[in-house]
Amino acid sequence: MASSTLLWKRALPTTSRIVRMYSTFKPASPLTVHDINQHTIEAKYAVRGSIPIRADELQSLIDSHPTLHGLPFSKIINANIGNPQQLQQKPLTWYRQVLSILQYPELLDEVKFPADVVDRATTLLKHLGSVGAYSPSQGVPYIRNSVAQFISDRDGYDASPENIFLTGGASAAVTYLLQILSAGPNSGFLIPIPQYPLYTATIALNNAKPIGYFLNEDNHWSTDPNQIRQLIKTNKEQGVDIKALVVINPGNPTGSILSEQDIIELIDIAAEHGIVLISDEVYQENIFKGKFLSMKKVLCELKESHPHLYSNVQLASLHSTSKGVSGECGQRGGYMELIGFTQEVKSVVFKLASINLCSVVSGQALMELMINPPKPGQESYEQYHHETSAIHTDLETRASALYESFLEMEDISCNKPMGAMYLFPRLHFTEEHYPLLFKRARDQKQLPDDTYCIELLEHTGICCVPGNGFGQVEGTYHLRTTFLPPGTEWIEKWTAFHKAFIQKYKV
Ligand SMILES: Cc1ncc(COP(=O)(O)O)c(C=O)c1O
């Protein structure tokens, strides 16, 4: 008796109060991946794919065994994602001072802040109440007004707050747009190749069809309007209803900036075919060479000169607090301006925003702080100016240093960075010169750019993303790296790794 009691005690979790004397059913199995929405399985997102996951595992190993991990490096360099504050970029003081008051208004009595910080925080508190309360779904009206003013000042053309939706980063705007435009597998979306994989992933989630148009690597990743027109023709012939043309300017992963002529050609295509333009302009502040021209500005100019051709063009333009010199990726601020859409369609976007209740309210406030920063003469201006200029110069210096290093590396070519946060160098690997690499890749069910990035990670701790995660011309191989990690030591390690890689594989 004593021993059976003991067994019973062991069989039950000690904290459980519930005792089932006998079971009346056979327990069902948990879900397998075949039971869930297959579109969620199909969606891929290389920026946080298998190589970054492996990098996280290695970082955990280092953290748990700081002296005994046995790896040839002591930290992971996350060059796989444009996440500046993960890589020691300091947040701007102006943002954090105002945000801290919004989070805890009592600070106003306890800390002496610059006068413009107090003014802005007080104004924002008046308009949004508490950051802990839901805001109107489209966004706080005061902040939408500010965004409209920012766009008008930037472009020289009016913007209406009615057309502004504050979103949880630009990603949420992409989700809304692709949701309303996807009407089944025959809904086509023209996307640049290479592209930022948010687009292919969201298209897959909506069971729609991605139609890649190739950017021209030999001409600074420019667009080829003839190719896009041809794609529209052939897809229409096959019954595909092309809904939108996605443009990423400045480009991710390419780091290029579109010329005015390219933008005009894209608007022409949209006007002629009634295709919505989605202009992802989250890197508009990250410009090193050339000039950023918003799609909205070019469209307004065209409308002014040729209203009969362009008045029906529908453009959604996106911006974010994650990039630029803000780098506030975790705060999830963004906006989308909808131009030329009917009230009926805008109401559906509004409904989607309502289903989500609202975007993060502190992220909305951050958007206001980004587009409406301290002005010369205000107390925070000097520090703001100093901090933002330093970040900008730093990014430009790092971009050049990495670019120069790629130029020195054997069998690598790279376009000069013009903007954004990335380089997308080409790895000139051919089966003829790298037979062992191609064999190894095939054996491991990889592509040669996967193998390169995996070995780079395992030997140096540098984590970047193979070009095939963004799309590339078949038979070409690339990788995407940010130039955000500080210092040059990691670049030196990369150079040494590359030499060894070439020695190992090249014949
Ligand atoms: C081109 C592009 N669009 C959109 C996003 C999404 O950014 P967020 O949702 O943080 O605004 C990113 C992020 O890297 C991006 O590179």
What does this structure look like?
The structure is a single chain. Helix 4 (93-103) crosses helix 6, helix 4 (93-103) runs antiparallel to helix 15 (361-371) and helix 18 packs across helix 19 (489-505). Strand 5, helix 11 and strand 6 form a beta-alpha-beta unit. The protein starts with a helix and ends with a helix. The protein is an alpha/beta fold and 507 residues long. It has 19 helices and 14 strands. Residues 1-9 have low confidence and may be disordered.
Mean pLDDT: 93
| Distance between the first and last residues' Cα | 77 Å
Q: What count of structural domains?
A: 2
Structural class, judged by helices and strands?
A: alpha/beta
The CATH architecture of the largest domain can be named as: 3-Layer(aba) Sandwich
GO molecular function, one term: transaminase activity
Cofactor: pyridoxal 5'-phosphate
Family: Belongs to the class-I pyridoxal-phosphate-dependent aminotransferase family. Alanine aminotransferase subfamily.
Keywords: Aminotransferase, Pyridoxal phosphate, Transferase
Quick structural summary:
Keywords: Aminotransferase, Pyridoxal phosphate, Transferase. By secondary structure, this protein is α/β, with parallel strands linked by helices.
